[in-house]
Amino acid sequence: MDKFLIRGGVPLEGEVEISGSKNAALPLMAAALLTEEPIHFQTVPNLRDIATMVQLLKCLGAAVQVSGENALEICAAGALTPLAPYDLVRKMRASILVLGPLLARFGEARVSLPGGCAIGSRPVDQHIKGLQALGAKIQVENGYVHARSEGRLRGGHVLFDMATVGGTENLMMAAALADGETLLENVAREPEIVDLAVLLNAMGARVEGAGSDSIRIQGVNTLHGCNHRVMPDRIETGSYLVAAVMTQGDVTCRNTRPELLEAVLVKLEEAGACLKRGGDWVRVTMRQRPQAVSFRTLPYPAFPTDMQAQFMAMNTIANGTGTIAETIFENRFMHVQELNRMGARIAVDGHTAVVQGIERLEAAPVMATDLRASMSLVVAALVANGETMIDRIYHIDRGYERVEFKLRQLGARIERVVR
Ligand code: EPU
User: Fold this and answer.
1) Which end of the chain is more exposed for a tag (fewer CB within 10 A), N or C?
2) How close is the Cα of 120 to the center of ligand 1, in Å?
3) Atom 4 (ligand 1): residue with closest C-alpha?
4) Which residue's CA is minimally distant from atom 7 of ligand 1?
5) pLDDT tens-digit map of 52-74
């Protein structure tokens, strides 16, 4: 298993190109199942989760071609096998995103239930409830969700119990081909939802309201092919900014959209960072030890759960004490024990972590437990005294494109140790 060896102490300086967003690309790729015409995607990040989605689409019978660096063509022509097997779904929970499009286009889908997850139980009851409201008959048996509809799905009204990103996406895709109008309420407002709506509309769908808390969709008979550029990764952007702030550096993120991470930028300013932003770039400069910050993770546009671990790492070396409440996932503090092994002072009580800042972390062998937890260990190692070895970095390869190259370009001393 690959590991990262990181020698801390270098302020990060320079420019970094931000990749396309993983969490936008996954539902966009699933949406290609809604038409028999090819969809051409640009700025698709080269990541393990994307490779898993490619594998899944091929297994369903779609043709997927790499048509250039970060470009993909997906063509789901002809009769597909609407079965997403456990072996693939267990590798990546986002596989559940094929449920809505398969059901809408073929009238049937069998998708394995995703298993347990390191950050929480993550049920899919809202996806199921929503599809039932569009007329689907759903049975959960032998670990599979088996969904059927007689003829087309029909438009309906779905009021979600909570703002679910994946649930909203599945229902948008299903409703795009349903007969009649669908109203989705209490939906997620994440920018990735807006990117999906842009793609669906370019395919001929009629989706309105994405980015607000209700989405109205007029179903159409068929959808067609198009070109689409995946939006920039706001979480990758935020992660490099945190790394720059912690190392007291000066980093510009290019090809990004700073307006999509306002809650993160506000907290970095509160920590004492100086930010400059343009339409597609953001620059952070930091010349002092950060001030501790407190926050709660909440659905967009509030502070994202996917940045919680990286900010916790920042608080470990900050001036003062910060309180962090995680309200989205019930078990997203797995990085705490690892950060504490590096000398951090973090106490957890239920959903709240209290981080007492110290002057300096000490290198230690640590283990990555999930994607964002991995990044928190990387940024912690960048400021620790000595050499940190991070094990199980396959987690980071799921969601950060060429992370060690990008960090090295900024001056970091990071090596991949291949075993
Ligand atoms: N939930 C339910 N029932 C459902 C669906 C969700 O109870 O049917 C709960 C979840 O258990 C969770 C909350 O609702 O407590 C929010 O979950 P959501 O459905 O919004 O999350 P997701 O779609 O499974 C996406 C991202 C995650 C990100 C969350 C929250 C993708 C592929 N994944 O997950 O990204 O943390 O939204 O913003 O888009 C990551 O990139 O590291 C990552 C975990």
Assistant:
1) C
2) 9
3) 124
4) 123
5) 999 999 999 999 999 888 999 99
- Compute CA 335 distance to the chain's CA centroid, rounded to the nearest angstrom: 18
Chain Cα centroid distance, residue 348: 25
Torsion of CA 296, 300, 305, 308, to 10 degrees: -60
Residues in contact with 373: Cβ distance below 8 Å, sequence separation at least 6, in sequence order: 118, 309, 334, 335, 338, 395
Question: E strands within 160-231?
Answer: 181-185, 206-208, 214-218, 226-229
- What's the 146 CA to ligand 1 centre distance in angstroms? 21
- What SS3 class is residue 292? coil
Q: Looking at ligand 1, which atom is closest to the CA of residue 122? A: 11
Distance of CA 345 to the CA centre of its chain: 28
pTM of the model: 0.97
Q: Where are the alpha helices (DSSP H) in 83-124?
A: 86-89, 99-106
Q: Which atom of ligand 1 is nearest to the CA of 300?
A: 38
Examine the pLDDT at 116 and tell me if it is beyond 70: no
Token representation of residue 233: 């990764």
From residue 168, how far is each of 196, 302, 330 by CA, in Å? Answer: 10, 18, 20
Closest CA to 338 of 293, 375, 296: 375
Active centre residues (catalytic): 117
Q: Residue 218: phi, psi to the nearest 5? A: -95, 115
Q: What is the pLDDT of residues 174-191, one digit of tens each?
A: 999 999 999 999 999 999
Pocket of ligand 1 (CB under 6 A): 23, 26, 93-94, 120, 122-127, 162, 164-167, 188, 305-306, 328-329, 371-372, 399
**Residues belonging to the chain:** 419
State the angle between helix axes of 165-176 and 22-31 in degrees (0 to 180), rounded to the nearest 10: 20
**Going by CA atoms, what residue is nearest to atom 25 of ligand 1?**
165
Q: Which of 48, 164, 194, 401 most suits a substitution to test ligand 1, by most atoms within 8 Å of the C-beta?
A: 164
Is 17 within 8 Å of 366 (Cβ atoms)?
A: no
